[in-house]
Amino acid sequence: MYDTYVKIKDNGKEIKRKVIDLPFYCTCPCCGKEIELPEYFELITQNEDFDPFEMNLYCDKCNDKTKSLRQSIKNLIDVVDIMPVDKLKEVYGLMARYYMPEDDE
User: Fold this and answer.
1) Residue 1 pLDDT more than 80?
2) 96-105, pLDDT tens digit by residue?
3) What stretch of H or E contains 78?
4) How far is CA 14 from CA 9, 32, 103, in A?
5) pTM: predicted TM-score of the whole model, two decimal places
6) How far apart are CA 58 and CA 28, in angstroms?
7) d(CA 53, CA 40)
8) Cα separation of 83 and 81, whole Å?
């Protein structure tokens, strides 16, 4: 395994710090609160789809607020499989205006 580190200058003196020893932070996309990520390397290694530039991580308060919304969306996805075609088209009509093709780029 490689010994990955960063070089930091402090009063003109160069200091090497192991990356694994550095604190990582992000900003909650909902409220803007700064969040420390003590398990940052676990996120990277345990989730092959983890993309630090695309993934949103929420603070505990906002995560709790959005939990019911995420559950409602999951329930909607489950219902779509058995929804009649006419109702499915109606739902699509309501949601299509919010779709931005440039978001897929």
Assistant:
1) no
2) 877 665 555 5
3) helix 60-80
4) 4, 33, 42
5) 0.54
6) 5
7) 13
8) 6
CA dist 86 and 92 (Å) reads 10
Q: Check: CB of residue 16 under 8 Å from CB of residue 5.
A: yes
Strand pairing category for 25-27 and 13-18: unpaired
| Closest C-alpha among 38, 76, 37 to residue 58 | 37
Q: In the numeric block, which tokens belong to residue 54?
A: 């695309």
Q: Rounded distance, CA 38 to CA 27, Å?
A: 14
Asked if 65 and 30 touch (Cβ cutoff 8 Å), the reply is yes
> Mind listing the pLDDT tens digit for each residue in 2-40?
678 889 898 989 999 888 778 889 899 889 999 988 777
Residue 35 pairs with which residues in a beta bridge? Answer: 26
In angstroms, rounded to a whole number, what is the distance separating the alpha carbons of residues 19 and 4?
A: 6
Rounded to whole angstroms, the Cα distance separating 36 from 16 reads 21
